[in-house]
Amino acid sequence: MSLPTSRRFVAQLLEALSLLPQSDAENPLNAASEPAKKQLLSLQVLFPNEFLPALDLLDRRLVTRFRVMDEREGPRRPCDEPSKSTDNHTSNYETPLQHNPHDTIYYVRSAQQRSSRYSASYDTTTSYEVRLQSWNCSCPAFAFSAFPVMHSESPDLSYEPASEPRPHEDTVHGEGYAMDATKRDLTWAFGGATLSSDMPPVCKHILACVLVEECPKTFGAFAQESTVCVEEAAGWAAGWGD
Fold it and tell me: Which residue positions does the secretion signal occupy (predicted)?
């Protein structure tokens, strides 16, 4: 049996984490099971520079998921009305939130720490746009990750998510993985629409959004939801947000 690609391995790891039973604690991470801790440790090993900063962004509630209103879904909300925002911290995540990933955009606020002699505070300065389908973040760190100074070799552009089988990997899923992976189709690939089979570029913002999107029972409570019209979404994309 051939080993899974890096992208497939991360996708299986995240899916295994999302399927593990979660506690009813206010913060699911405080009462994480042993299998969940193993999955989280694996993510830390895979992303040593991004995973903990991504958790920090989630812990400070700096991630917002924007759902762009579709005119076919009902009466259009005038854009002079305030957008509908909800805090998922009080939501029940036994079932993932229903939304279309194609009309979903994430914005992650970047807070710079301001230190003084007696205390430290955070000044929110910039919001970075994250799109998981096209796999892009507007932050500089993602650009440097996507276009490094040195390329050791040409990337392999032969990645085909739909053509690869999904073997059962005990080393990835561990205990608590009750579903048979051989009977499910892969509907999501880590790296979105990128073509390379190698590990895609990653930053802390895009990793935080991936955790919210793919593991809603564990990380969904740390993100906010906002429903916006097309014009408001365009304003955010142009940099006219909060």
Answer: 1-25
Residue 147 domain boundaries: 6-237
66 lies in some domain: yes
Distance, CA of 77 to CA of 146 (rounded, Å): 37
Tell me which residue of 173, 157, 170, 164 sits closest to 36, measured CA to CA: 173
User: Taking the model in full, what pTM does it have?
Assistant: 0.74
Q: Which of 9, 2, 39, 3 is nearest to 218 (CA)?
A: 39
* % of residues, the chain, pLDDT over 70: 62
Say if 1 falls within a structural domain.
no
155 vs 26: CA distance, rounded Å: 43
State the average pLDDT over residues 199-212: 95
- Does residue 12 lie in a domain region? yes
Residue 16 amino acid letter: A
> Which amino acid appears at position 179 of this protein?
M
Residue 230, number of CB atoms within 10 A of its CB? 14
